[in-house]
Design a protein that fits this description.
The protein contains nine helices and eight strands. By secondary structure, it is of the alpha/beta class. An eight-stranded mixed β-sheet has the order 3-2-1-4-5-6-7-8, sandwiched between helices.
Length: about 300
């Protein structure tokens, strides 16, 4: 019988502060809700403050005494990321949990405010910069946890360090661009954990599996996805179910750092969360280190942990 890892995520988080990006909807909202249910003070880090406030109202309808604060952030704009981190520095002496959950999926080709390909710039570089700008407060907390949300699509991603050195590499399709950004998320989470060694803090990656959220709304624009949607609807899961892998990654005391948590079911689309084997380019520590160096240069953010 497989171990039910969800039992290890039901911890008391009273007195702790958690930042959750993309907390206004989908998996981010469910993660924020469940962390609040365990007593954590939640920073709803969202691009749209109106939607963030609506999310807060939804959480409070379940948890009347939830401690919530909405601070705007646009991960596709490094200036906004810096402004967000400045507000956090003014308000919080320490941060216990950071969940890098927000992202874009299957967007048409476009660029961030800083000129980076939209998937890579938002999903990876935005979160790389955010984590680095918050690292001092995260290290100020005893045994802080940083969770970066990836996807099983990372297996289809390819990273070419020479091309990425400009940050403006164009992919041949929105799916490949998305898959590349999710590979970057996983490489980042692992390299970050290596650099956090001996600090007491941990970095963990999580992939939620298939989920009925707004993130994949552009999938219907692609014929192949339209044909697969009836099947995916049958074998995927709700946002609440998908959030369990992320929640476990953020809270379980049985993790050592560097793990990838995801569903144990068919094609990794649903099921109970467990530790998964990292495969392909994501298992290359040399590539992870090179990506880190490139990301520092492109964002101008240096962590000071080596």
């Amino acid at each position: 019988m497989r171990e039910d890892w969800t039992a290890h995520s039901n911890c008391d988080l009273s007195g702790r502060t958690a930042v959750v990006t993309g907390a206004n909807s989908g998996i981010g909202l469910e993660v924020a809700r469940e962390l609040a249910r365990r007593g954590a003070r939640i920073v709803l880090a969202c691009r749209d403050v109106v939607r963030a406030k609506a999310a807060g109202k939804s959480i409070r309808s379940d948890i009347a005494d939830a401690q919530l604060e909405a601070i705007p952030i646009d991960l596709a704009n490094l200036g906004s990321v810096r402004a967000f981190s400045g507000q956090c520095a003014d308000r919080f002496d320490r941060l216990d949990i950071l969940v890098n959950s927000a992202g874009v999926m299957l967007a048409p080709h476009g660029l961030t405010a800083d000129g980076f390909e939209i998937h890579f710039g938002t999903n990876h570089l935005g979160h790389f910069a955010l984590t680095g700008l918050l690292i001092e407060q995260l290290l100020a907390a005893r045994a802080s946890r940083i969770v970066t949300v990836t996807s099983a699509a990372y297996l289809y991603g390819q990273l070419d360090p020479a091309a990425l050195a400009t940050g403006r590499e164009e992919a041949t399709s929105p799916f490949r661009a998305y898959a590349r950004s999710k590979l970057a998320n996983l490489l980042f989470a692992q390299e970050l954990n290596r650099r956090l060694e001996r600090t007491g803090s941990l970095s963990v990656a999580a992939h939620p599996g298939g989920a009925a959220t707004g993130l994949g709304r552009r999938a219907t624009e692609h014929p192949i996805y339209r044909r697969l949607l009836p099947l995916l609807g049958w074998i995927s899961q709700s946002a609440h179910e998908a959030a369990q892998s992320v929640l476990l990654a953020a809270t379980s005391e049985r993790l050592n750092g560097g793990e990838l948590i995801g569903p144990d079911g068919l094609l990794g689309l649903k099921g109970r969360p467990r530790i998964l084997r990292v495969r392909g380019q994501a298992a290359d520590p040399g590539l992870a280190c090179r990506l880190w160096q490139i990301s520092e240069r492109l964002t101008g953010v240096r962590y000071g942990i080596y």
